[in-house]
Sequence to fold (198 residues):
Amino acid sequence: MTYILWDLGGVLVDWNPRYLYSKLMSGSEMERFLSEICTMEWNEEQDGGRSIQDGTDLLISAHPQYEAEIRAYYGRWQEMLRGAIQESVELLQACHRAGVKQYALTNWSAETFPSALERYDFLQLFEGIVVSGVEGIKKPDPQIYHLVMERYQLHPQDGLFIDDNLRNIRAAETIGMKTHHFLSPAELATDLQSYLAK
Fold:
């Protein structure tokens, strides 16, 4: 059975902390803050199951002078969401209309994901969604790909995995999945057409 496994952030949802922090600090200060304090590595720990409270407390204890800015990361989290990547959503909808089974695998905090479900109607098109923060495992750990396969009774070789992060693509390939490294909706449209024509 042919199916598609989608990443969400960066593929279907336009998420970027800079959308928030550009309102709070100058460009150079923002880049230093996001590279040294509220880093992607720190964010991924919440995506992997650490509570927002624990993650926030950890940073505030290390950088008390930035307490307000650190609290803003999750306190104003929705301001990091610019909206859906509409051209990608249209591809998702077209595949749904064509009867293709579709699933999502996302690195996302269990505490913030419910608000995404409320905000984005297209998430209802998936047969199932695996959220790293709920499972306590995150991409690129091969274990989370195997979890998707087992939960929905899928075979790796039958699916196409779409992600904007190359390390996650490489991990999917190690379990035998076909992959698309997402750079633009136009390139994805071409690859999907080829994949579904087979």
